[in-house]
Amino acid sequence: MxxxxxxxxxxxxxxxxxxxxxxxxxxxxxxxxxxxxxxxxGIAESIREKLPADLHGIPGKSxxxxxxxxxxxxxxxxxxxxxxxxxxxxxxxxxxxxxxxxAELFAKIEPLVGKDTLLLSxxxxxxxxxxxxxxxxxxxxxxxxxxxxxxxxxxxxxxxxPDADEALIARVMAFYRGLDKAPARLNRPVPxxxxxxxxxxxxxxxxxxxxxxxxDMKTLDEIMLNSLGPRWASIGPLLALHxxxxxxxLHRVLSQLYNHVVPSMGLDPLPDDSIDRLGKIAExxxxxSEAADYIALRDRRTIGMLESRE
Amino acid sequence: MxxxxxxxxxxxxxxxxxxxxxxxxxxxxxxxxxxxxxxxxGIAESIREKLPADLHGIPGKSxxxxxxxxxxxxxxxxxxxxxxxxxxxxxxxxxxxxxxxxAELFAKIEPLVGKDTLLLSxxxxxxxxxxxxxxxxxxxxxxxxxxxxxxxxxxxxxxxxPDADEALIARVMAFYRGLDKAPARLNRPVPxxxxxxxxxxxxxxxxxxxxxxxxDMKTLDEIMLNSLGPRWASIGPLLALHxxxxxxxLHRVLSQLYNHVVPSMGLDPLPDDSIDRLGKIAExxxxxSEAADYIALRDRRTIGMLESRE
Lengths: 310, 310
Known about the structure:
The structure is a homodimer.
Chain A: E1 10-14, H1 18-29, E2 33-37, H2 43-56, H3 65-72, E3 75-77, H4 81-84, E4 90-93, H5 99-109, E5 118-121, H6 128-131, E6 141-146, E7 155-159, H7 166-177, E8 182-185, H8 195-211, H9 217-225, H10 228-235, H11 237-244, H12 249-261, H13 272-285, H14 291-308
Parallel strand pairs in A: 1-2, 1-4, 2-3, 4-5, 5-6, 7-8
Antiparallel strand pairs in A: 6-7
Helix pairs in contact in A: 1-2, 10-11, 10-14, 11-12, 12-13
């Protein structure tokens, strides 16, 4: 391949659906070669046709037509998985969300790759102990769960088995940072990981408010994009509350506001010991001495976001 | 007052705390005079000192020092509520969140103002029937609930009593639109309205994940601002899901994804008839023929947001 000389190595992308193609765009845009393994008919033509739009949609990157063509030359196709994973630096699996499929696949791949090859799964919900169940070393597989589409949104949730090697997790974090991604480490796996759990509870409440006629669907979306959306996109939900509590921080918000509001919605208030723990965590995570900087960041990002809307 | 000639009228702001001051900034920046009624000692000096920062923080506006001084000249102070509301075009109440306080206040104000004066409450949770309970015409009071801080974030949740006059609601919507706000109408009042209900469920899950050690607090905030935050700030949570479902739209996402994930989190799946209703609402609200435009909007805003971060 013409770009082989400058390549950071080859990554095997297992499964060439929307997620696999989007990962491919992120990988080739950041200097890797990619071999896609997918048995589907016409997969090569389909992916080559759609990759330019993905490459143009990567934040912070800008490619000429010639550069796009050169990047797409970095992609090859090999339906035989055993051949596809030969000599790769990483495997990014994007197959069906089925326990048995993923467990069989990684057991098959394990003896075919070098000991330093990263074995990564895009699974959005299956925990790594299940995915690694049939491997000789089940702790080698690590979740690298992107937020769709992976070429655009920075998040990758990282999660190993409870006994995963710290050095392996560190290498996986470094791998995704090297793609301009924002890897976020979970301390232990839970079904749905974090982003999809947060999404599920908010969407459940949103759907209930629309289905019961309290608010129209379009109005609900507008409420989010004119309030919580910009706030959470600027600094996240917990720092936002911590700052909203002024000198009392998160502890004050939870004890004086949150716990007075949630019972009227049919939710359980937080117990005092949880409020004490969480208030302390907030003070340690976001020290009072840096509050002015956080507020300035929140306001700068929020105003920038609102002014950039057409 | 020197600006009286160009004034759009005077608004009485009842309560000069953080919300009242922020509303004052939004009002004077958009051509109104404001009279603030608050019995607190030193309120005038405190507000005059802090208003410049609020005025500089209004998205899309830019004021010189001389303009700031002229705007602050539009603000006067009158602790006697009966005098403060004389001749005003609107009252924006920001008092304590207590049923009796608000009910007494609006009953006192009602006979002192003209029949076209808008009677608005910033209440974040008390429904308008309770606030209007002691008025001769309890349907005159309308919730205008801002998202903090009101001078910065566009949202104002609008909610009248179940028997409120449609023409009154329309006038309130027009009033807030005239302040460059994004009023969002609720069809009927529910405790916490919409934004705070959405916030409460997401924050509850976020706190649980942090308190149980699944994820660090800072990582949780980073997960939000690198995934759901930008997505929801670009087009809102329900349109985002509807587009994510491709040709199957929201119906497909709910039946094939949402309902397969939420049971593992201990949440109830949606019944089939709700999925059918919500899928239909999504198709009517966001027609398939406009999907390409929505996707382009989502991607443009998301990429703009991510690229604008330092």
